[in-house]
Amino acid sequence: MVSEHSDAPDGDAAALALKILVAGGFGVGKTTLVGAVSEIRPLRTEELLSEAGQSVDDTDGLDHKTTTTVAMDFGRITIRSGLSLYLFGTPGQDRFWFLWDELSQGALGAVVLADTRRLEDCFPAVDYFEHRRIPFVVAVNCFAGARQHGAPDVSRALDLDRGTPVVLCDARDRDSGKEVLIRLVEYAGRMHTARLLDSVG
């Protein structure tokens, strides 16, 4: 969950690096979000969509999508001095879900990206993190032309646990993505602190 680095600037405490997952359905914008916020050139494992995959990949409503992540995306962003996030984007198709258990090891929390046009596609990610008690926020990627829904409506539609944050974002915009990540770190920090206090109480 947390690693320390000795290359922090003089006078700073040891730098912290937190592992964050970016999950969600096929074509929801995970690769876009990681690429938009990463301060390094993101690592991508994308392949072209093939005719063979058309029978298993639901591309309805994704007319312009030509590639898909087959392992993970990776990026890094510095939130403030001494605090960096390592971002791991998960593949969206169910045939790659066996990778999630490996990617989730040591994660502080997760961002579940949602598209209100295909809201049901993020149910598996929500269920995954709820069952493993990994703190997460739902970030609604506001696609052009999509009907706008407020956070309370999305929360009810996904039957989220009380207190799970829902935020609206533009996965293409760095500042918007950074705000989502800050919200997650704050929420996950509160959740982990509460659990620690419960365990010692």
UniProtKB/TrEMBL annotation:
Pfam families: ATP_bind_1 (PF03029). It comes from the Bacteria. Keywords: GTP-binding, Hydrolase, Nucleotide-binding. Gene3D superfamilies: P-loop containing nucleotide triphosphate hydrolases (3.40.50.300). Belongs to the GPN-loop GTPase family. This is ATP/GTP-binding protein. It comes from Streptomyces violaceus.
